[in-house]
Structures are given as structure tokens and as C-alpha cells.
Amino acid sequence: MIPGLPRPPLALTIGDPSGVGPEIAADAWRMRREAGVPPFYLLADPEQIAARAALSGKAVPVEVTTATAAEARFERALPVVALSHNLSERPGQSDVNNAGGIIEAIDRAVEDVGKGLASALVTNPIAKKTLYEAGFRYPGHTEYLGHLAERMTGEATTPIMMIAGPELRTIPVTIHIPLSEVPHRLTAEMILTAARITARDLEKRFGIANPRLALAGLNPHAGEGGSIGKEDEEIVSPAVEALRREGIDATGPLPADTMFHAAARRKYDAALCMYHDQALIPAKTLGFDDAVNVTLGLPFIRTSPDHGTAFDIAGKGIARPDSLIAALKLARFMADRQAELTRGK
Is this structure's pTM higher than 0.90? Predict the structure, then answer.
């Protein structure tokens, strides 16, 4: 805790109520003391939360509250800020009628952070198919948050995904596109944008002075001098050189098969990878249960568990809250570091 600075609670969205979000939120509250979970409130339907907790055999006390009163109630009950939408309790079964409540929770959480009622936003997983069926027009959660950020500030926003674990932070430059399209879509400017935002947020929100970035090569052996593809020489290397000219500590392109072992990881603070699996495989292998999805480049802090809705185990009482707890703790850490640096200016 930073003395003399206000520390509003974290705003946690319900995500898709048919997934494991309700039960891992309840478990995170239940483990608040032993796991050091910072105060948060859940934007949800209180009746649905109570019903899921009972179904999973882990009943918790629930108190309906407001964002401003949530922290005072956190020790004795799970504080829930009620949505205007009712959410159905159908674990494991996607329900398009829940779409309105899912979006309302995100909207209100972002609004609370913008007003200073919450320190940061933590989101439970959503199922995009459910939202698409209701007319949702954004590719996913992150893109929608980018839209809300632009509406909040009036400025263009480029959200960047980071997977942050205890041993490794990775950023995929290209994300949900077919592997066959990566060489055609990858550009030096994309790499530069991701690297600049990463360096800025590592300094601003993680408290890392002069962040060190390692850039993976696209091809095996980082192209091996152009003999295994030209992209590393023509796209990645120029981006690294441009970053160095800007004063950013960047190295690469590095062979992806040798840059994630323990000794190599000590040489950088984050790794920029050229495609989705190149970033997520090492990050999830090293920290599957406690890795966190962090969105960089937003005017507010957002973290999320590094897993999906897990419909197949929803309501069975076996979902692990580890990644959500890690997301809550990291959001608190980032908010404190940002406040500390702001105060020091």
C-alpha cells in the first residue's frame, strides 16, 4: 500500500454467467485472506451469483452494494453491484439473453474506473459467440474495451495483449489470424507500435525503468541470414534498429527456440513474438495456472484470467481461481505503481 494515496477497490465483471466466472469470483473472495486478494466488487446479478455458489457447493455471503461502499463490506461478504439485467443460471449452456448483462457489466466497470470509483478493471471470460448472436459487432473483449477507451478520451487507442506470468511476459504482435497469413500481414510498423506501447506501460504501470525488450524472429533460427525466409531481415530487424534509435532497449530478432529458457529470460523484461502461439505457448507452459492476460495501451488498467469460459466444467465446483486471483493481484500492483509514479512527478 502506498501511504497517503486513495486506493479504490477493483471492479470485477461477471463475464459470461454460464461459464466459470461466478464461481471463481466467489472462490477468490473466499480465499481473500490466505491468498492476499485485494478488495474488489463484482458487477453481476446477485441472485445468479448466490445460485451458482450454492450449486457448486460453496455458498458465500453476498451483499448488494455500490462501488463506493464495496470495500467496507469486503471482509464480511462478497460485494455485488447489481446489474439492471437479470442473468440466467444455466451453467455450461450459452444463453443469448445474457448478452445485455455481460455488456452492461463491462460498460459500468469502465465507467467506474473513469470516475475514480475503481482502481482498475478485471474481467472474467466471455463467449464471443453468445455476443455475436445478440448483434455484438466487435471482434472480441479487447477490441470493445478499445472502443470504450476511445469514447472516454476522444483519442485513437491501440490495445496490445500481454500474457504476464511470474517468470515471463510475452506480447503477440499478430493475434487471432491464421498462421498462413502472418508473413503477409506482419509489418515493421506493427512491431514498432506494439514495442512502444509495451515499453511505455512497463515503465508506467510495472515500475520498470528502461524496459528491455526481446523480439523473436518469425522464422526458424530467425531466418538464418535469409536462408529460411526473408521476413526477419526485411521486417523484424529494421523494427529493432528503429526502436534502438528511439532509445528503447531492444534486441533481436532472436531464434524463438532458444530465447525462453531461464538464463535467456533474465536478459529481458518482455518478449515480443510475431504470432499468437509463439507468445502463448511459452507463457502458458511456464505459468498455466497463474498467468494473466493484461491489455496494454488503454487509458485504464485491465487484467483478466488467462483462460476461457470453461463451459464444460461450469457449475461443478472444480474450476480453479488461481488465474483470477493473479489477475486481481496484478491489477492492484499496476494501479499502485502507476499512482506512485504519478505522485513522484
Answer: yes
